[in-house]
Each structure stands twice: as structure tokens, then as C-alpha cells.
Design brief:
It contains 30 helices and 22 strands. With 923 residues, it is of the alpha+beta class. The protein has a nine-stranded mixed sheet. Strands 5, 6, 7, 8 and 9 form a five-stranded mixed sheet that branches. Helix 19 packs across helix 27. The longest helix has 45 residues, at 772-816. The model is unreliable at 868-872 (pLDDT under 50).
Length: 923
């Protein structure tokens, strides 16, 4: 007779979920939040890296990103009609269409900002005497026929050029700035030299235009089209200035350029667009640019425009700078990712352990009645999967909707890892605990628990891994973004510390319990005795707290190091809280300006200095031959040393620059004491050296060497007492005052002179963070700190929940023996205090030690200052321990644990003792 299967009256999973809906909902919420964080992390990294690439290309000067394709004019041996026909608008447009097809992916072109035409590669001289000729030099013009001029200008006077008179003349437009500077108006005729000494070319100005979006690629690639330049004529001892400007011809006037002496060339300028690019396109983008400028795609370009075709662009430098920033930031962010991931994994494991312990009697009964480990594990896996998989899906969906522009597979893998851990934590823990029959009433505490050989080997293995990771990070730094062992070094250090502390902490508690026996009350001794015999599973809460506190300390220290580096860079750039200097070098301060600045609200002190740039250095010791010149700074020693002490940049005793009493006199033999930078000191040596400067002729002797000084942000300098200079004239004011009012300062300066500018330290500081990669990395660290704190709180609560039934029963029994409610609160608080203090103090010390160990290998300069080129004097941003990040999370853990213990005691007192005692407890 065949066997028939009967359907279970009460399905296992549904019954279990209905039995404890609160615990099931809390578990699902934990998995949802963890899956969301796990999926959001890679998508957030992808998002800010993608935004960083787009931002880098979009904000770079157009002249560095445009693809400039040029070729020579038609061959001179062709008939004139053929040469002229080759440069007309239609052939150029056809070539542009062919060129657009040769642009390799992932490059895309912005047709609105792209332009083509014919231009003179060599400026031609204006022949008219009425043109402005400062220093007797005639102006020089660039002739260009840009396409689509009507879409990029607004006509102010006249009309746009439209016709050309063959080889004798043409029409042109000029911008309003060009017309103003060169005295041009509608109807003006500019004569230019023709090729082979032919009749001059007459260019008639038919319109004066105003550029639309002057900073766009159409105008910015060749700024001379928009704004004339007052340039210096090369050669000669004295500088001679002359005007350079541009005449905008119609596209139909391109044949006219063939008859000029300006060496015309055909050009196609393609402005790239970055809205479609992602961070994963970085490598392909670099390869495409290389192929276009000197590879297979260059061959296609020459097939379209001719054998002399060339492609030039600096877009590869922009992409390379982005790649360098990305490579520098990624390892630092990986440390935060490993930290928060480890805490989340430990908390999920603790949750599985809590459920397994709460159901130990139930599972033991199933085993005693013939239940197999496979069957029990499968049923528990079904329970957790029903909750974990939908919660994981919701977390993944939320991360995808919140961060839409990112890859899906990394987020899916991260969320899948969370789901796998959440599903397996309870079955694996239960199967491990019930692999052998459990003896009822056996003790499970640190008194009977003896470390096995396997545990010892595991701890030693982790110790070796942590030591190797720390040694590698100290030796190599964080340059290798793929070395995950290095990124996990803080977590491994915290793990080793947790394992060591779990082994050691019962010993001091037992020592403390001995004198507690002599106390009159039993609360102190009982709490210490119970804390020393706490469950062996307490290693997981301690591990979670240590990793969370270490991650918070490391993350807070990273943010503090970034903020400190930016503040020091801004201070080094300005020299003080405010810097007042002239628009040009060596402009003396007007009378009364220092007093006016000193009286401005918020200004505490003002230091006046005289700076002369480019002072030639004599050859002294012969060392540092590359340092041939350096700025000379004349200072008032008293006020300047106060400023140097406040800023921390090269302080020195004021008497080092004592006055020689020869100020204002011409005495070539006088020797002035000087403070120099290392390179200047290496060149001059220790003997007196002759100096010839605009401030006077004298000799200097190096009396001190400093690496930096407030007056200058550069690497080299020479400080002397300003009172000893022959020609004393202060050029810069350095004002100190964190609350200095910028508007009031500018008003005070403008009242004395319009030629001086005010630069505030706070304004420079605000300009340092403009890259999405910087802000994104900082946001990830802030999220890691917050999430780590949340998981630490959860670890404390799970630890208390694990032993809450046993504590409630203990309070009920002790209350029948006369224990008061106050004594019960103190008992639970003192019992939880040792392990909490251990975690707090241990986490603080481990975080501090981890930062000290890893600081030599971590440089935050790219994360802090990657958007500020030119700050070579601030060459490093070392990691430093932030006291608030070390102390505040630890204090929060102690306060939270104490509050939770008191709340549990109050709740147990409200429930009463009868219910707990009536429930029965075989222990």
C-alpha cells in the first residue's frame, strides 16, 4: 500500500512567525537597514566618482578640454579658384561631418559649442596710423571665420558681416571690448598687409557685437576673439607694449585669408560633453584620447582633412588628474567600508546567536526527539529566509532609487552578502550548539570555558594578518587601492584587541571581588561575581563595540585631519586671517591704511611687511644651484614673531633680527641678520653675502632657518629687519582676528585706495571643497561614523536582551529575600558596568593606537586639497587622532548601557516577582 504524506496542521514557518511577531519584525528591519547600507555604499562611491569625472571635465577651462583639429591651407600649386573653393563654408561643413564620425567612444561632442572655420595662425599688423600705437608699436590682428557666429553674439551696433570682396577686402565684426580698446566703430576700415607685397587688404567693420556666454568654449578657447590683449613685445631691455585683437569675418570671407601674410589654417574645434560619462569610462576615455592624438584614429582624421591634419588637446591631463585623485581617495574610503561592514556582520551574527540561545530549550527538545541537524537547520533557514530575503530586496530597491546613476551588480553582490549572512547566522549557530546533546544545567560562562587549540590558532592567525597589514600600510601607504588587507588593518587590530580583552578581563574582576566580600552589602560583590562569570558569548558584543569605536575614531580622525589640512592651507595662503595687498607687486601701502584696518571690528592685530619678489641670490656655498632667486621680506620683528607664533609657521625669537641702526642709509658693508628657507640658506651658507635689491644694497648673514613663514606661501624666502632697509615701503598687511568682518575690511581699504584687495582666510577655505569626490568621500565617512554608532548601540541592546530573562528571574528571587528596588537597579547597573567600561576604554585605546600605527602610511592631502592646485608648500596632510572622536562614542556607550540596565530593572520591578517565579526555572 503506497504511503501518503499528510499536510502539517500548523506549518512551521508561519507558526514561528506568529509566535514572536515583534522579534521577526525587528530582525527584518535590521536586515533591511543593513542591506540598504551595504547596497548604497558601492552605489554612492560610483555616484561621486562619476560626478567627479563630469565635474572635472565640465569645470576645466575649455581650452584644456577642446579637441582642436587643424590642417594647412590648400596647396599653393592649385589654381586660385580651387584653393578658394576648398575653404568655403560647404566643404568645411562636409569635413566636419566626416570628422564627427571619427571621434571614438566614449567621447561625445557638444555641437552647440563646437566651431570650425579658417584663421590666421600668425598675427598680421594693422597698417593704419589712426589705430592706437602705445610705445610706437602698431596693433596686430588675428583674422577668423568662426561658424555659427550669429548664435553666439548679440549685435549692439550695425550688422553682422555677410559679404567678401574677393582678394581685396571683406567685412568683419568686432566685440565691444575690441572696439573700445582699438577705437573702432561701424564703418571703420582696417588695412592689413597682403601676401607677396600685394595691395593691402581692406577690412570694413560692419558691426559691434557682445558675446553670449563669454566663458563658453566658443569664446574661451581663443580669448583674443573676445577680449583684446595688451601684450609685451619680446626682446629688448625695457618692456614695450602693443595691442593684439581679432577681426571676425564671415564664413564666406575665408578665401580672403589666403591672400594675407597670416599663414592661414583650417580648424575644427570640438567641445566634449561629459553628461554621459561614468567613472568606469576613465580608462576608455584615456585610450580614446591617445588614439585620437597619436594613434589609429589620427589616421582617420587625416583621411578626412588631409595629410597635415593634427589633433591637440589637454583633455588627457584632466582625465589623468581625476584618475590620480580617485586612486588617492579610494583606499581611504575602503577603510571606512571595511569598518562599518565588519560591525554590521558582527551585529547580524549576534542576532543569530541571541535567537539561538533564546530557543535553546526548544531546539534541544527537538534533538532529543530525533530531530536531525539537517532538518533543524533547514527549518531555521526557512524562518530567516522568509524575513531576510524580502527585507534585503526592499533595502536594495531603496538604495537603487536613492542613487539611480550607479552600477547595479556591486550593490546586488553587497546586498546578497547581507542576505546570506542574515539567513545563515541562526541555523549555523543552532547547529553548532546542538551538534552534541546538551547537559541540562551545565554552566556556560567564562569560568568553565577554556580556549581550544583551534581558537588559539585562529587568534594567532588573525594577529599575524593584522601585524602584516599594519606593517604594509606603514611602509607603502594607501597607494594600492586593490590591497584589501591594508584597508582592513584597523578592523584586524580591533579584532585582536577584542580577543585579548575577552581572555583577560575576568581576572581583574575576580581580584576586585575579593575585597568586595568585606563590604556590608551584597550588591557590590554579587555584581562583580556575576560580571566575572558572564556568558562566553559576550565576546561578540565586545568585538562589535571595539570595531565600532575604532571605526568611529578612525573616521573622525580622517575628517579632523582633512579640516586641519584645509585650515592650514588657507592660513598659509593668506598668512593671517586677512591679507591686504596691491594688485601689482611692490605697490606701497597708502598712508593711514594700517591704522584703518586696525580699527576695523574683529581685527586684533596688524602686521605690515615689505615684500620684494625675484631678488637674485649670490652664489655662496654652491649648494642648491636651482634656487637662483627668492622673495625678500622686510618685517617688524616684534609684530611678525607674534604672527608667526599664532599661525605656527616658522616662529623665531624677535631678537634674532635685531636692528643694526643703519636703516635709510647707503652702506654696502653693513651685515643684516636674516631668517631663510632651507634652500636659500643652503645656497647662501653661513658667511655674509652681498645682496642688491630695490630696497637697498647690503650684506646678509643667515642666523636661522625655517621651513615656512606667514608672509609667503612659497617655499623660498629671506626675512630681514625692515627698519634696516634703505628704501622702506611696506606692501602687504596681515591682519589677525578670527571674527574679522570682510565687508568692513574691504570698505576701509577702498576708502584709502582702490588698488588694494582683501583676501580672507575663511574665503580661501571655502574654495577648497568643490569636487564631488571630496564631498562624497567625506559624506561616506560621516555615514560610517553614524552607522557604526548605531550598530554599537544595537550590540549593547542585544547583549542585554540575551541575558534579560535570566536577570529578571534573578531579581525576582532576590526580591523575595529582601532586595529593594534601588538595590536591584544598582545590581544590574554594576553588573553591566565592567564589560561596558572595558569596551569603552579598550575601544578608545585601540582607536588611538590604530591611528598612531597607521598615521605614517595615510596622507589625506588629495582628499583635503585636491581641488586647489599650486599649494606645493603644504605637501602632506597627516592623519592625527581627534580627541572628540575617541572620547564621545566611548562615553555614549557607557551612558547607554547604564540607562538600558536601569530601564530593565524598572521594567522588571513593574512586572512583579510572582509571574517570574510562577513560570518556573529549572536552574
Amino acid at each position: 500500500m503506497p504511503r501518503t504524506s499528510t499536510r502539517a496542521v500548523a506549518p512551521w514557518v508561519r507558526t514561528r512567525l506568529r509566535t514572536a511577531p515583534g522579534a521577526a519584525g525587528a530582525f527584518a528591519l535590521l536586515v533591511l537597514v543593513t542591506a540598504f547600507l551595504a547596497a548604497a555604499l558601492p552605489r554612492a562611491v560610483d555616484s561621486y566618482e562619476t560626478e567627479g569625472l563630469r565635474h572635472g571635465i565640465g569645470t576645466a577651462p575649455p581650452r584644456t578640454t577642446v579637441l582642436d583639429i587643424t590642417t594647412g591651407p590648400p596647396a599653393s600649386d592649385l589654381p586660385p579658384e580651387s584653393r578658394e573653393a576648398a575653404v568655403l563654408p560647404e566643404p568645411l561643413a562636409r569635413r566636419r561631418a566626416a570628422l564627427e564620425k571619427t571621434i571614438p567612444a566614449p567621447l561625445r561632442i557638444d555641437p552647440e559649442q563646437s566651431v570650425h572655420g579658417v584663421r590666421t595662425s600668425k598675427r598680421v599688423t594693422g597698417l593704419d596710423r589712426w589705430l592706437p600705437q602705445p610705445y610706437g608699436l602698431p596693433p596686430e590682428f588675428v583674422l577668423s571665420t568662426p561658424s555659427g557666429l550669429d548664435r553666439h553674439v548679440t549685435v549692439r551696433e550695425g550688422r553682422l558681416p555677410a559679404t567678401a570682396d574677393g582678394r581685396e577686402g571683406t567685412e568683419a565684426a568686432v566685440t565691444a571690448e575690441t572696439a573700445k580698446s582699438l577705437h573702432l566703430k561701424v564703418g571703420s576700415v582696417v588695412h592689413l598687409p597682403a601676401l607677396y607685397a600685394g595691395p593691402p587688404l581692406a577690412v570694413t567693420v560692419t558691426g559691434i557685437v557682445e558675446p553670449v556666454r563669454p566663458q563658453s568654449a566658443f569664446w574661451s578657447v581663443e580669448p583674443l576673439l573676445r577680449t583684446p590683449s595688451f601684450a609685451v613685445k619680446p626682446g629688448g631691455m625695457d618692456p614695450l607694449y602693443y595691442w593684439q585683437a581679432a577681426l571676425l569675418l564671415p564664413p564666406a570671407g575665408a578665401p580672403t585669408l589666403l591672400s594675407t601674410a597670416g599663414e592661414p589654417e583650417l580648424y575644427w574645434r570640438f567641445a566634449p560633453t561629459a553628461g554621459h560619462l561614468t567613472a568606469q569610462d576613465e580608462t576608455r576615455l584615456g585610450e580614446a584620447i591617445a588614439s585620437l592624438t597619436g594613434g589609429p584614429d589620427l589616421v582617420k582624421v587625416r583621411q578626412a582633412v588631409g595629410p597635415t591634419g593634427a589633433v591637440s588637446t589637454d583633455l588627457d591631463e584632466v582625465v589623468g588628474a581625476y584618475g590620480g585623485m580617485r586612486a588617492a581617495i579610494a583606499p581611504v574610503v575602503a577603510v571606512a567600508a571595511f569598518g562599518i561592514g565588519s560591525v554590521a556582520a558582527v551585529v547580524l551574527a549576534m542576532t543569530g546567536g541571541l535567537f539561538a540561545n533564546r530557543r535553546a530549550a526548544e531546539l534541544g527538545l527537538l534533538r532529543s526527539r530525533g530531530g536531525s541537524l539537517t532538518g533543524i537547520g533547514g527549518r531555521l533557514l526557512g524562518e530567516t529566509a522568509v524575513l531576510a530575503l524580502p527585507a534585503t530586496g526592499l533595502g536594495l530597491l531603496a538604495a537603487t532609487l536613492l542613487l539611480p546613476e550607479a552600477r547595479f551588480l556591486p550593490a546586488l553582490a553587497a546586498a546578497g552578502a547581507v542576505a546570506l549572512l542574515a539567513c545563515l547566522a541562526l541555523p549555523l549557530r543552532a547547529v553548532f550548539l546542538h551538534r552534541r546533546p546538551l547537559v541540562h544545567g551545565g554552566r556556560d560562562d567564562l569560568v568553565d570555558a577554556r580556549p581550544s587549540r583551534g581558537r588559539t590558532v585562529t587568534e594567532l592567525t588573525l594577529l599575524v594578518l593584522a601585524a602584516g597589514a599594519v606593517a604594509a600600510l606603514r611602509r607603502r601607504g594607501t597607494d594600492d587601492a586593490g590591497d584589501h588587507l591594508v584597508s582592513a588593518a584597523p578592523v584586524l587590530v580591533a579584532l585582536i584587541a577584542a580577543l585579548v580583552l575577552v581572555r583577560l578581563y575576568p581576572v581583574p574582576l575576580r581580584w576586585a571581588a575579593r575585597p568586595a566580600r568585606r563590604l556590608r552589602g551584597a550588591v557590590g560583590y554579587l555584581s562583580l561575581a556575576r560580571a566575572a562569570r558572564s556568558s562566553a558569548i559576550g565576546a561578540l558584543p565586545l568585538l562589535a563595540l571595539l570595531v565600532a569605536l575604532t571605526t568611529a575614531a578612525f573616521g573622525g580622525s580622517v575628517l579632523a585631519g582633512v579640516a586641519d589640512a584645509r585650515d592650514r592651507a588657507a592660513l598659509l595662503e593668506t598668512g593671517a586671517d586677512a591679507r591686504i595687498s596691491g594688485a601689482a607687486d611692490a605697490v606701497p601701502l597708502p598712508d593711514g591704511l594700517a591704522e584703518a584696518v586696525r580699527g576695523t571690528p574683529g581685527v586684533r592685530d596688524v602686521t605690515a611687511v615689505q615684500i620684494e619678489y625675484g631678488v637674485s641670490l649670490p652664489t655662496g656655498t654652491g649648494q642648491s644651484p636651482e634656487t637662483t632667486s627668492a622673495p625678500l621680506v622686510g618685517v617688524d620683528p616684534e609684530s611678525y614673531t607674534r604672527l608667526a607664533r599664532r599661525t605656527g609657521f616658522g616662529p623665531f625669537p624677535a631678537d634674532l633680527l635685531g636692528s643694526t641702526g643703519t636703516g635709510g642709509k647707503v652702506d654696502h658693508s653693513r651685515v643684516l641678520p636674516a631668517v631663510a628657507s632651507p634652500a636659500v640658506a643652503a645656497r647662501l651658507g653661513t658667511e655674509p653675502r652681498d645682496m642688491v635689491t630695490a630696497a637697498g644694497e647690503f650684506r646678509v648673514r643667515i642666523v636661522a632657518v625655517r621651513a615656512a613663514t606667514p608672509a609667503l606661501s612659497g617655499a623660498d624666502f629671506l626675512l630681514v629687519n625692515g627698519a634696516d632697509l634703505t628704501h622702506r615701503a611696506n606692501t602687504t598687511l596681515l591682519a589677525t582676528g578670527p571674527s574679522a568682518d570682510g565687508r568692513a575690511l574691504r570698505a576701509a581699504v577702498a576708502a584709502k585706495s582702490r588698488d588694494f584687495a582683501v583676501v580672507l582666510r575663511t574665503e580661501r577655505l571655502a574654495t577648497y571643497v568643490d569636487s564631488p569626490m571630496q564631498t562624497g568621500a567625506e559624506l561616506i565617512y560621516l555615514t560610517a561614523i553614524g552607522a557604526g554608532a548605531g550598530y554599537a548601540v544595537l550590540a549593547v541592546l542585544l547583549s542585554l536582551l540575551q541575558s534579560s530573562p535570566e536577570r529578571a528571574t534573578l531579581l525576582a528571587r532576590l526580591r523575595t529575600m529582601g532586595l529593594t528596588r534601588g538595590q536591584g537597579r544598582r545590581l544590574l547597573g554594576l553588573e553591566a558596568l565592567p564589560q561596558t567600561l572595558l569596551a569603552a576604554v579598550g575601544g578608545t585605546l585601540v582607536g588611538w593606537a590604530t591611528i598612531l600605527l597607521l598615521a605614517p602610511g595615510v596622507d589625506l592631502v588629495r582628499l583635503a586639497l585636491s581641488a586647489t592646485p599650486g599649494l606645493a608648500s603644504l605637501d602632506s596632510a597627516p592623519l592625527r587622532a581627534d580627541p572628540w572622536s575617541l572620547v564621545l562614542p566611548a562615553v555614549g556607550v557607557v551612558v547607554l548601557t547604564g540607562a538600558a540596565a536601569l530601564l530593565q530593572a524598572a521594567w522588571a520591578a513593574r512586572r512583579g516577582s510572582i509571574k517570574e517565579l510562577r513560570a518556573g526555572d529549572a536552574r
